[in-house]
């Protein structure tokens, strides 16, 4: 016999119980629109290449202008992934996918100037990614020797470390990087469809070609002996390449409306492990995001047998609710989603993003999620997301915003080379490899404010020491910020959803 779903009073009681698990801190008004603007501005601080006249973070200057010359290619542009000066394509492509997904789902809620800025941020990456896959059966996966780079502390404008180009050629595999690049280009094609249909078509056409490479030569890019020492242990494929194949197919299916890709998801889901690691989402593991993305097709009554993806998405959402029997997401005492390892806020931002996207999908189809005796509504998922956002913006035990430049209290000593060394305008002399150490070891605040950067964040005890040496906590990354753009866009338009 079917179990009764909780009525509205029961749902409200469950929600109150859920929120009562964590202490509330002195809440202040959150200017989500201001945080949104700053979260997009951050990407200008991560730019590589020739900077345009309208560059707003003016302490940055041109860098990496010779990238690619050693292999006879133009590989200028793109983003440095974090506080170093290397261009790692695997996380950069994921960053691009998440920026594009933010625009696809929440772009209509962004103020027009910020939507334009978000598209500029996406294009800065897609222009570069198109260069990396311009040659058939060849994909450039990284620029910059990370060992040499990490042994220096210097501005990107002063780089004198090898700008080694790491390349994979058929029949060697790169399913992870190629699959994520295909996803990024497909998602971006949707983001640009209204404003630049010609560019959107180029992105989609290239995405299909890159996906074919990913699927034809299956395997992890970091298993290639000729590049392994350059990409590992930094952005190795730790969780396997299979999820990127499904992820790339899912985005191509959505962007192209070509049923071939939905058929691929149906026919390859089991063999490629679609039901494995379903509670993870980030630059290396796409499963939870994949399941949420494909669930849109299921909720819209797809003719394909994709219900297992919806079931996995439901299961993931159930892990966010303490009362559900499957609950296992860890929270800090202050209420922040926590998972072991560095850059913890990447989990808070990606999970918040998925919660909001899934809430919208459920609401449009008048559906809820059932977790045993507990029923999760879209509003409950939004509450979970808003709690994480407010924590990041300052409602936490330290009273500190973990977004640089937001509020009066934020990290001043972030692990970031360009931010921590005086700019060329203030210090025109070259700061060579080891000469930057004095700035790295200084207890002074960084001279250049990387506005909008979200740092790795506090540990499992909610403690954060503002120390640039502790890179696991103090280093910002593009893939922390990218999903946060969509999250902030939602709450900027709906600030009182949790009241």
From TrEMBL:
Supply the EC number(s): 3.2.1.4
| TM segment ranges | none
Q: Is the keyword Protein transport in the record?
A: no
Protein keywords: Carbohydrate metabolism, Cellulose degradation, Glycosidase, Hydrolase, Polysaccharide degradation, Signal
Q: Which is a Pfam family this sequence falls into?
A: Glyco_hydro_9
Signal peptide: which range, if any?
Answer: 1-27
- Entry-linked PROSITE patterns: GH9_2 (PS00592), GH9_3 (PS00698)
Recorded catalytic activity of this chain's protein: Endohydrolysis of (1->4)-beta-D-glucosidic linkages in cellulose, lichenin and cereal beta-D-glucans
Which residues carry out catalysis? 415, 466, 475
Keyword Signal (UniProt): yes
Q: Which ranges carry the Glycoside hydrolase family domain? A: 32-488
According to the lineage, what is the superkingdom? Eukaryota
Please provide the Gene Ontology terms (biological process) for this protein: cellulose catabolic process
Report the PANTHER family cross-referenced here.
ENDO-1,4-BETA-GLUCANASE
Family the entry assigns: Belongs to the glycosyl hydrolase 9 (cellulase E) family.
Q: Quote the protein name from its UniProt record.
A: Endoglucanase
Whose protein is this, by species? Salvia splendens (Scarlet sage)
The organism that produces this protein has a lineage beginning with:
Eukaryota, Viridiplantae, Streptophyta, Embryophyta, Tracheophyta
């Amino acid at each position: 016999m079917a179990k009764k779903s909780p009525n509205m009073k029961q749902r409200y009681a469950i929600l109150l119980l859920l929120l009562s698990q964590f202490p509330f801190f002195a809440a202040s008004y959150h200017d989500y629109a201001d945080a949104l603007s700053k979260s997009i501005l951050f990407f200008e601080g991560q730019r590589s290449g020739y900077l345009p006249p309208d560059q707003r973070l003016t302490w940055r200057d041109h860098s990496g202008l010779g990238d690619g010359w050693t292999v006879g290619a133009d590989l200028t542009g793109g983003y440095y992934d974090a506080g170093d000066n290397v261009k790692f394509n695997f996380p950069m492509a994921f960053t691009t996918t998440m920026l594009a997904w933010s625009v696809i789902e929440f772009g209509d809620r962004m103020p027009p100037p910020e939507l334009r800025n978000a598209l500029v941020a996406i294009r800065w990456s897609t222009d570069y990614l198109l260069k990396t896959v311009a040659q058939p059966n060849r994909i450039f996966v990284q620029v910059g020797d990370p060992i040499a780079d990490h042994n220096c502390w210097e501005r990107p404008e002063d780089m004198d470390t090898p700008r080694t180009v790491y390349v994979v050629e058929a029949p060697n595999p790169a399913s992870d990087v190629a699959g994520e690049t295909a996803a990024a280009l497909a998602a971006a094609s949707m983001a640009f469809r209204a404003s630049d249909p010609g560019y959107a078509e180029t992105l989609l056409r290239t995405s299909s070609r890159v996906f074919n490479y990913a699927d034809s030569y299956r395997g992890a890019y970091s298993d290639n002996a000729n590049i392994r020492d350059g990409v590992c242990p930094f952005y190795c494929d730790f969780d396997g390449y299979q999820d990127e194949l499904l992820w790339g197919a899912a985005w191509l299916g959505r962007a192209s409306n070509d049923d071939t890709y939905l058929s691929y998801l149906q026919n390859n889901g089991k063999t490629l492990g679609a039901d494995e690691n379903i509670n993870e989402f980030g630059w290396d593991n796409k499963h939870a995001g994949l399941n949420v993305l494909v669930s849109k097709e299921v909720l819209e009554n797809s003719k394909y047998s994709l219900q297992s993806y919806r079931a996995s998405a439901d299961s993931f959402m159930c892990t966010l609710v303490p009362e559900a029997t499957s609950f296992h997401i860890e929270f800090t005492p202050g209420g922040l989603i926590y998972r072991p390892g560095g850059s913890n806020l990447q989990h808070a931002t990606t999970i918040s993003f998925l919660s909001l996207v899934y809430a919208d999908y459920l609401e449009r189809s008048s559906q809820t999620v059932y977790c045993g005796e507990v029923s999760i509504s879209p509003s409950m998922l939004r509450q979970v997301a808003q709690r994480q956002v407010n924590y990041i913006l300052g409602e936490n035990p330290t009273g500190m915003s973990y977004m640089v430049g937001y509020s009066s209290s934020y990290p001043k000593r972030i692990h970031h080379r360009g931010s921590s060394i005086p700019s060329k305008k203030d210090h025109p002399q070259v700061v060579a490899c080891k000469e930057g150490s004095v700035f790295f070891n200084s207890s002074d605040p960084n001279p250049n404010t990387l506005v909008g950067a979200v740092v790795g964040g506090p540990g499992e005890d909610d403690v954060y020491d503002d120390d640039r040496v502790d890179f696991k906590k103090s280093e910002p990354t593009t893939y922390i910020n990218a999903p946060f753009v969509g999250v902030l866009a939602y709450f900027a338009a709906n600030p009182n959803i949790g009241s």
